[in-house]
Amino acid sequence: MVTIALDAMGGDDFPKPEVEGALQAAKAFGVKVILVGRQEVIQQELEKHPGWSSLAIEIRHASEQVTMEDSAGKAVRAKKDSSIRVACRMVREHEADAVVSAGNTGAVMATSKLVQGMLQGVDRPALASAFPTSKRGYVVMLDVGANVDCTPRMLAQFAVMGSAYSRVIFHCKNPRVGLLSIGEEEHKGNSLTHEARPLLKGLRHVNFIGNVEGRDVYTGKADVIVCDGFVGNVALKVSEGLVDVISHVLKESLTATMKRKFGAYLARDAFSDFKKRVDYSEYGGVPLLGLNGLCMICHGRSNAKAIRNAIRVAKDFAEGKINERIASELEEWASVPTS
After folding, report:
1. C-alpha atoms less than 13 angstroms from C-alpha of 147 in its C-beta half-sphere
2. Is 121 within 8 Å of 333 (Cβ atoms)?
3. Measured distance CA(13)–CA(280) in Å, rounded
4. How many angstroms separate the CA atoms of 241 and 136, rounded?
């Protein structure tokens, strides 16, 4: 049975969504969830759910909590018994297969990197996010915020990690990998993309298709898109804002008249499908790839559904042995020069 260490004190509305999501996941996916945080707080929330003790749910006490106001440095240096640190320690010591947290993103990244360490052959971890495409599939983009500045070598490592993600989660046999740039032509881009291209071309286990443009994030031209964390985070936040705008405009327009309301009622299944495809909670969060252990980072505002699905994805990663795949494919880096 896969065991997930869940930071029960991280989200904006802790521990309610964490507890509810853990119970749903334990029941639906057959996983064991260890809720990490202040025992009395978690126990009180669990008691609101009769029958919880029959599920594979445990509590691991952690006396400290990292808040959204804490800096990453403070979380690492001063709070050594925080819920996120205890959860990461459980993964390091093989008590759990993965950690899931909706806490302070910077603190989660810094703590998980310090406690769990890095996979051999990985310079820096990367956040990977899935974007829906017009071909009813998904494209994996990384990095979306872990590394503002990247080297060409890091982009090549991201390509290996993103390919593994696509194969494990989306069952894509030979993911097409694109390098995000300002044009498809080889001569277009900046110094980073120019220097990364030959490294990407030389990767034996990566199906590199060349440059892709911003619009290709949604066309399905590539299954994996690599970029530095600055560009990736801007793309992620623009996409989240666009979804909010489209949802608001549609709701406003479709409720303007009785005729439109009736049409919206008839098309409710189509709107439900649209919402499902763009809803972040369907995948719950983003994995921090490249760690010597699995880590899923969720939105601070995550609801129970998002926590439930983040646990599901973490389970899929563990069962798909994604770290083992990444490590084996990065063995070739012994022959790749440092940029």
Report:
1. 25
2. yes
3. 17
4. 21
Cα separations in angstroms, 42 against 19, 149, 219: 7, 39, 43
DSSP labels for 36-96? EE-HHHHHHHHTTSTTGGGSSEEEEE-SB---TTS-HHHHHHH-TTBHHHHHHHHHHTTS-
Q: What is the average pLDDT score of the chain? A: 89
Strand partners, 226: 142, 179
How many Å apart are CA 139 and CA 131, to the nearest integer? 5
Largest pairwise CA distance in the chain = 67
Among residues 52, 49, 60, which one has the least CA distance to residue 7? Answer: 60
Q: Are strands 138-142 and 126-132 parallel, antiparallel or unpaired?
A: antiparallel
Under a CB-based contact definition with an 8 Å cutoff, are residues 108 and 294 in contact?
no
Helix axes 152-170, 191-201, angle to 10 degrees: 60
Amino acid at position 34, single letter: I
Query: Tokens 């309610």 label which residue?
Result: 16
pLDDT of residue 275 exceeding 80 = no
What distance in Å separates the CA atoms of residue 245 and residue 256, rounded to the nearest whole number?
17
71: left (phi over 0), alpha (psi -120 to 50) or beta: beta
Cβ atoms of residues 288 and 109 within 8 Å: yes
Count of helix runs (H) and strand runs (E) in the chain: 13, 11
Complete edge-to-edge strand list for the sheet that includes strand 98-101: 57-61, 32-37, 3-7, 98-101, 294-298, 285-289, 126-132, 138-142, 224-226, 176-180, 207-212
Q: Which residues pair with 126 in a beta bridge?
A: 289
- pLDDT digit string, tens, across residues 68-80: 888 888 888 899 9
What pTM was computed for the model? 0.87
C-alpha distances in Å from residue 84, one per residue of 25, 73, 113, 200, 306 = 19, 14, 12, 35, 18
For 203-245, write each residue's pLDDT tens digit.
888 999 999 999 999 999 999 999 999 999 999 888 878 777 7
